[in-house]
Design goal:
heterodimer, A: 5 helices, flat, B: mainly alpha, 434 Repressor (Amino-terminal Domain), 5 helices, about 5% strand
Amino acid sequence: MKFMDCKTNNPAVWRFTFRFIFLMLLYAVFGVLSTCGLLLWHPNGVLTWLLAILPAIPIGGAVVLTGWYMREEKDEFQSAVLVQSLLGGIGATLVVTTVWGFLENYAHFRRLDILMLWPLYLVFVGISYGIVKARYK
Amino acid sequence: MKNRLRVLRAEREWSQADLAERLEVSRQSVNAIETGKYDPSLPLAFKLARLFGTTIEAIFSDEKS
């Protein structure tokens, strides 16, 4: 995966890419583990919370990883592009989910699974990244 | 911000990629600065000035590009 369109020998980008892929694999594993655990074992109390928190750990890690990347990235323009893309992703996710929330509550729209927020955010960051890059061409 | 980067680069017959390599940034960064779409930070502006053996004011002016 080439997350950012800059020099392919940029070590900060490669480190970020590999770490991000690792975190997303971890998210998938923890997600399956958490789903199976909650559905099959029907745990109570602390274990329920622990199983629910498990998939959120790699997501928190991805945010930390982004900050880490921005410290390691020597190319300030690439950092600026990433920040703008993340802002675009956050903004689009908030706008879409707010609109959907009102439609859900008052117009009988289908319920949006809250677990879709992370994939939705990543899609919006990707779209936003393309738009931001196009602006600088 | 207006700049003379393209002229200074042409005088030395450097491509954007050559300049990017010397600055340790991506070619896209050089292009964005050169076209006035991105204003570099002060440290990067100083780096550019040192590289071209001139002052920041001789490269950048605060006119609209």
